[in-house]
Amino acid sequence: MEIINSSINQFLEQMKFAYRTKDQTEQMRCNGSTGDGFVMRLVPRPDMLIIITNCTLAEHTQVNFAFEEAMVELMICFQGEGSVEAAGVHGTMRPNTITLGLMNDIKGTYFFAGDRSMITLGIHISAATFDRYLTGLDGSRSTDFKQLISNRPLFQLQQSILDTPILQLASRIMNIPYTHNIPSIALESLALEILSYSFQSFVYGSNRSNLPAAITKSELQRLQHAKEVLLQRMDNPPSLLELSRIIGMNDFKLKHHFKAVFGTTVFGYLRDIRMEKAILLLQDGMTSVSMAAAHVGYANASYFASAFRKRYGMNPSEFLHYANNIR
Question: What percent of the chain has pLDDT over 70?
């Protein structure tokens, strides 16, 4: 982790955050001329580094980075926009997303949008720690860092909207009143739960070894495109026939292959991402129940409330009241 710490410190230097220690828990303020806000470095255990960012950069910022040690980064973005270019891969950072990246001796560039609030939570672990977390009680594991990243310097697993368990856990980390009296185990346990949910979703969910042989690589790409279309158009989604035309796959294959690959139906997925987006809108305290319903494509507030209650076990109005009380 020493090399990972050093690489992240170089990143912070370019962002104009002055640190006093190299590998200890510490809050760093942004240089006034470059923006306003802070970065918190948290070290709950020797093989885990957590970085909380809450700042507004004065202008568009470009930051070069180099990670020489094999590592895994889980990045949760609450607010802010940016992009990354590395090893021929282009990625984006946008609000309410979670990204899992595997890196090995990689150099690249981050681009951050200026004059916008940037609130992120990053969890960094070594490749060895990643492999240990994927190991079962019997000592076996279905995949590992080397198998996933192969010969690439960067393997970025799919980017998706935050699901509710991760959102709640990440919010708890963000809202802890950090003092030297906070036990490391409290922070570590929350981080491990986030990693567990994320690995289950990204790593095991991306394991395609059990797919029917008839599903080709090209069809997998079309199915991923279908998810992206639904995510972008959740407020006015296409019909199954329209979606099949957009991605270039007949509706029969779309319906059956989507369920085989993602474990849910096309419209089951649509319902899930609508609910995930809705709870994020309600959590910010600035959106009413009717506004949230309309934003995610429900013209009838009663139908929205029923779907919300079925997913989360409470009415959206109850959740809104709860969210306002913990602000």
Answer: 91
On whether both 188 and 248 belong to a single domain, the answer is no
Phi and psi torsions of 161, nearest 5°: -70, 150
CB half-sphere exposure, 282, CA atoms < 13 A: 28
pLDDT of 159-196, one tens digit each?
665 555 777 788 788 877 665 567 788 889 999 999 99
Give the H/E segment covering residue 242.
helix 240-247
Q: What are phi and psi for residue 190, nearest 5 degrees?
A: -65, -45
The answer to whether the pTM exceeds 0.70 is no
pLDDT at residue 145, as a whole number? 92
Domain enclosing residue 285, as ranges: 217-325
**Whole-angstrom Cα distance, residue 93 to residue 224?**
18
Helices (H) and strands (E) in the chain, counts: 12, 12
Residue 144 and residue 282 share a domain? no
Rounded Cα distance between 89 and 108, Å, is 9
User: What's phi and psi for 116, nearest 5 deg?
Assistant: -140, 145
Mean pLDDT estimate for the chain: 84
Q: CB within 8 A of 56, min separation 6: which ones?
A: 35, 36, 37, 115, 116, 117, 118
